[in-house]
Amino acid sequence: MKLGHTVLTALLAAALSAGAAAQAGKTSAVLAITLEPPGLDPTTGAGATIGEIVHYNVLEGLTKIHSDGRVTPLLAESWSLEPDGRSYTFKLRRGVPFHDGESFDASDVKFSFERAKAEGSTNKAKKAVFDNIARIDTPDPHTVILTLNQPDSTFLFRLGENTAVILDPKSAAGTATRPIGTGPYKFDGWAKGSAVTLSAWSGFRAPQSVKIKKVTFRFINHAAAQVAALLAGDVDAIPRFQASQSVGQFRSDPRFSVTAGGSNGKTIVSINHRRKPFDDVRVRRALSYAVDRKAIIDGAMDGFGTPIGSHMVPGDAGYVDLTGVYPHNPEKARALLKEAGVATPLKVTLTLPPPVYARRSGEVVAAQLAKVGIHAKIENVEWAQWLSGAFKGNFDLTIISHVEPLDLMIYANPQYYFGYDSAAFRALMERYNASINPQERLKLIGDAQRMLANDAANVFLFQLPQIVVSNKRLKGLWSTSPIFVNDMSAVSWQ
Hints:
This protein has about 500 residues and is of the alpha+beta class. About 30% of the residues lie in helices and about 25% in strands. Helix 12 (about 425-435) runs antiparallel to helix 13.
């Protein structure tokens, strides 16, 4: 028996409606992220992927950064700033418990920040943020006064980063394997090599706002596997999709939503200044002349990404476009190597962590370096190996995207993994940190970018794009990220 057109249309509409209703009724979501973190404590670990799982979900700080860069109160209800720009008074939320029942109060803030400041602290914001805190006063359980050595106009933003989450003294030591916080989700489990699961916490102060009751973060670091997982419905979204060459496929598939925004990721060829001949600025400049940013973006990123010429991205306040300082010029690169007395071929190692942007960019960069007499042997490593090797200073060249926003202060730390050691830069950043004049700060941050470019502190490649591919009915994921988080309390099925 043949069905009439009207009946077929009605059946199709009913099926689609039923499918939409089923999706709208879902209370779980599976997200894929590229890298598995070595631990889940963002106050002691360097990997940005830690924040993708726990920040704003399990662990919270005094302030919250939104996708548009706004900063609003979180565990703080409000704050005030003294006219000298050095003293902040925070009024804290009352009646906030940790997941284990301990009460949040001013003593937890004092403990967390003193822990970050302590000798031997591995908090990656220690020098940039916490060493600038001169005093922490807690006049009552719901008030914290932070007095800075120098004014810092980015301070409230910094307190919204994952390095500044508040932990309880009784559970802090176990955060890397079992994080306990005040956020809307509690940690359920970690199947090493596979996934971390979180579940909505009934004790959260606003439980009705949390629509997704169970969240699974799966670790999928191969681009082809990410594509397959989405197509099979094994994952609902990939907030930082690696397979840029497959974007067109998903854009033409009505089951999916695709957005392409920017991030704070500064993708660079990091140079080990402690190893010869990279201690010679002429050699570092040769590296910068040797690379062709457009060819890297086209060849490795399928056209996604914006060229950068220093350690800031378009959209940052005070950003200066310095991509013209080192135009692609192989002849100039070869001349500088000869002037520096470097015998070619110069044999070096190019260490590449797992992300697709690093592996694919590395192949293009190695080919470009070879044309000027630098033979870069590619060494592919896993993330844990990169953190224990390259990030500890054991490398020649490496490709990595620094995703922390406004992180120029890493160049003021000569102990940082690439070993840039410039007294002039440190003095410039001291002036920047001490200034409370907005116009002067913009000028100084411009000068800082120019100094890094002139010193060829690293080879600055491109702004890391954020490509989000998700089930079209999953709403609320960030399309642009000033920080690397997945705020699941804002996500829902529709």
